[in-house]
Amino acid sequence: MIRVHILEDTDEKFDKIQDFITSSHIKDTITITRSVDATDCRNFLSKHEADVLLLDIIIPHLKDAEPQASTGFMFLDEIQEAEYLNKPKYIVAITAFEEAEEEFNDLYGNDVWSVLRVNDLDSKWQDGLLRLFSHINSANKDAFNDSIDVLWVCALMQPELSEVLNLNWNWQKITKFGRSYNLYAGKFIDKSGTERTCWAVPAQRMGMVSTAVMTQYLISKVQPKAIVMSGICAALPGEADLDDVIVSDCCWNYESGKWKNGQFEYSPHQISIESSSSAMLSDFILHHFPNEGNKHDFNVKAGPTASGSAVVADSKRAQELIKTQNRKVLGLEMEIYGLYEAASATTRYAPFFLAAKGVCDFADEKKGDDHQLSASKSSVTFMNEFLTEKFPEIHSHFTVT
């Protein structure tokens, strides 16, 4: 959808523009919002994003103030310079006066998409808007023609990604972004019989930051409909067995907070999967990994997980630190919060995101590498079956905002 925000103080001109857009052949691709003065628009852009801002040149700074061209000029300068405002991708100046059009062109002709004189004498302004909206729709379509269905992220090449590449998905190494990332492209057939595309990639190093940076970059390039992660984690004692899979329905950075009066006060920010994703996950676990009659050699539990930048090998420390933040926490690991932060922060569209990791230890003094491979394999098995079964449903919920 193209998000159009109109800054216009007169109802007559606003109605004229809105009526034209809503009666055009591209009306179903456009949403319209309105501000009536510069202050109103400033408040809107501080909280929302717009693809197109139609800005009247002669506007009041407040609703009952006198409309002036200088207000429009100063507000445009503010939009271009202020970091607290979301900058529209395209700014189109609109006016009913030839003098204002000429002055605006002299000052800002190189900084805005165009200036349109809205009147009843000709249809040039209508043609200009249609060309702009068609251009944006075409650009959006081209961008999503290059999109993929699934981005599968792992912490490291070994043992996490190597288990993903063991899936019979016809993996091919790709070099689309040079040597920046070890990308592999594969294809799988989902439950509906539809072939789906997947890119699998390890982060350049362990941790939330590396995962978040890479994920956000790839989201901007290929707009995956689903973003998933497999790998290994530590279970809190008594919450799961070795090689079981913990699916994170909520996560946070357990090291987040501040020092105050010589003590560290924790202030974790939690990110949860979408409610529709949670319902999908619960249904899948119920039917494929039931408590009784499970055909797999591992069990699956969904619940909160905590991410941190350091490996925890002290069960008492883990209990004291993590359980005080969320008593229902199941496991600890180092990347999921970064993945969820990157996926949930997208503004152009809303991808599905989910992470599942196999239990390789219990964050205690007995921590070792013996179960890293088998735990990683468990998580890949779960994610493979989940994507195959549920991707048609994921695809049906996918929307571009």
Task: Tell me what the structure shows.
It is a single chain. This protein is an alpha/beta fold. The protein folds into two domains: 2-145, Rossmann fold, CATH 3.40.50.2300; 150-397, Nucleoside phosphorylase domain (Rossmann fold), CATH 3.40.50. The protein has helices spanning 11-22, 38-47, 69-81, 98-108, 124-145, 157-164, 208-222, 275-288, 315-323, 336-344, 372-397, and strands spanning 2-7, 30-35, 52-56, 90-95, 114-117, 150-154, 172-174, 183-189, 195-202, 226-229, 232-235, 245-253, 257-260, 263-266, 271-272, 300-307, 331-333, 352-361. Helix 6 (157-164) packs across helix 11 and helix 7 packs parallel to helix 10. The longest helix is centred in the last third of the chain and has 26 residues, at 372-397. The radius of gyration is 26 Å and the shape is elongated. The protein starts with a strand and ends with a helix.
Which terms summarize this structure?
alpha/beta; five-stranded mixed β-barrel; 401 residues; elongated; Rossmann fold; 37% helix; single chain; 2 domains; 11 helices; five-stranded parallel β-sheet
Describe the secondary-structure layout.
Blueprint: E1 2-7, H1 11-22, E2 30-35, H2 38-47, E3 52-56, H3 69-81, E4 90-95, H4 98-108, E5 114-117, H5 124-145, E6 150-154, H6 157-164, E7 172-174, E8 183-189, E9 195-202, H7 208-222, E10 226-229, E11 232-235, E12 245-253, E13 257-260, E14 263-266, E15 271-272, H8 275-288, E16 300-307, H9 315-323, E17 331-333, H10 336-344, E18 352-361, H11 372-397
Helix pairs in contact: 6-11, 7-10, 8-11
